[in-house]
Each structure stands twice: as structure tokens, then as C-alpha cells.
Amino acid sequence: MPAQETADDLHSVAARRLRLIDQRYTPGRRAIVDLLGTAGRPVSIGDIAERLPQLPRSSAYRHLTVLHSAGLVRRVTASDEFTRFELAEDLTEHHHHLLCVSCGKVIDVTLPADFERQAADAISRLADAEGFQASSHQLDVLGLCAGCR
Ligand SMILES: [Zn+2]
Ligand SMILES: [Zn+2]
């Protein structure tokens, strides 16, 4: 699929989900979604300030809160100090994170398909036993990155 078409899809999904919670897809929100869609990794508020210098940090925080409420953005965090943001998983693809507890670096990782299958089986057995309907899982690995070891 051409990149432009994918980007248009992302923006129309974003506009639709915001409408569902009575919010508008303002230029500031669009700029953040664009950044998250092209960054290729979870971004911090500092990254956003650097890439979108015209957008005050307080507005960026408010936009992220709204985008999170609309189900467009997911928080990735080892601790409050190091919160980062990425597009919600249903807008990207299923993956996990390696989180450095020392510097906050986040590395996206995809686990082998057979691990995902085994995890899904084990999770649905656990969930069934509780009468719980599992829809997805998250697994973030905490530790030290190569630079901090
Ligand atoms: Zn680190
Ligand atoms: Zn998984």
C-alpha cells in the first residue's frame, strides 16, 4: 500500500475515533498523530517538543490525553519519569517492549509467532477459568539497555 494512502487511513481513523468522544481532530492533534505514525518508536514529551517546537508542552500533554481517551495512543512506561507514547496497537502491529529502567530507552520487539501462539493459548486457559474474555495482552520487559549496563 502506498505510504500516503496508509497515512490518510490513519488520519481518517483518528478523526472518526475523536468524533466518537465529541472531540475535534485539530492541527495540533494531527501533528502528534503524524509524528507517532512516522517516528518508528515510542516518543517522549521531549521528543515531541523537539520535533514540534511550535506546540507548547502543556498543549502536547492535553492532546495526548485526548488521543489516549479516543483509543488512538498508548502509553509505554517503565516509570512515570519515562512515559513515552506510541500509536495504539490496532493501528500498528502487535509487539512488545524492552524498557530501560535507568535511561528510559524503549526498544520495540516482535516475539516469535510460536511464542505468541503459546502465550495466547495459556492466557485463554487462565482467562476461561475466571470467566474472563481475553482480547489482547501486553508484555513489557524491564531491565538495562546496552548503554546503561
Ligand atoms: Zn538505558
Ligand atoms: Zn504478544
Structure annotation, total helices:
5
Give the tally of structural domains: 2
Give the overall shape.
globular
Radius of gyration: 17 Å
User: What is the CATH C-level name of the largest domain?
Assistant: Mainly Alpha
In short:
By secondary structure, this protein is α+β, with helices and mostly antiparallel strands.
Description:
With 149 residues, this protein is an alpha+beta fold. It is 46% helix and 15% strand. It contains 5 helices and 6 strands; from the N terminus they run H-H-E-H-H-E-E-E-E-H-E. It has a 3-stranded antiparallel β-sheet with strand order 1-3-2. The model has no long low-confidence stretch (mean pLDDT 92). The structure holds zinc ion (2 copies).
Task: Offer a few descriptive terms.
149 residues, alpha+beta, Dna Ligase, domain 1, three-stranded mixed β-sheet, 6 strands, 15% strand, binds zinc ion
